Amino acid sequence: MARAKKQRNEIGIAAQLRPTAKSLIKEALRVYGAAEEALTVAGDQFEGLLSEARAEMKKAHEALTVAGEQFEGLVSEARAEMKKAQPSRRDNRHKGKS
């Protein structure tokens, strides 16, 4: 008898806690849904920033590549002009013998 009464009390307590447990679960699901939505929006915004940063880095890399090529061209031109402006060793040898 005591055992049956104890089981009825446990069932009664469980029945009383069931609505509270369901309410807690519903609230947890609501909070989870809101957090999931917020994280999705934040993720989308982060992906946008990441894409912009990559595009800017690519543009900067391209600009540096062009600048490097232009610099190499200028150096080549300067070397060629310096070579033209310097008398050759042959010219220097003949000047002394004249």
Describe it.
With 98 residues, this protein is mostly helical. The chain has one domain (2-97). Helix content is 95%, strand content 0%. The model has no long low-confidence stretch (mean pLDDT 87).
What global shape is seen? rod-shaped
Measured by DSSP, the beta-strand proportion falls in under 5%
Strand pairing plus helix content: what structural class? Answer: mainly alpha
The quaternary organization reads as single chain
Number of domains: 1
Which regions are unreliable across 5 or more consecutive residues at pLDDT < 50? none
Tell me the span between the first and last alpha carbons.
139 Å
SSE string, helix = H, strand = E?
Answer: HH
Number of strands: 0
* Overall pLDDT: 87
**Radius of gyration, CA atoms, in whole angstroms:** 41 Å
Number of helices: 2
Helix % is over 70%
**Main β-sheet: number of strands, strand sense, barrel status?**
none
Write a brief caption for the model:
By secondary structure, this protein is an all-alpha fold. It has helices spanning 2-85, 89-97. The chain is 95% helix and 0% strand.
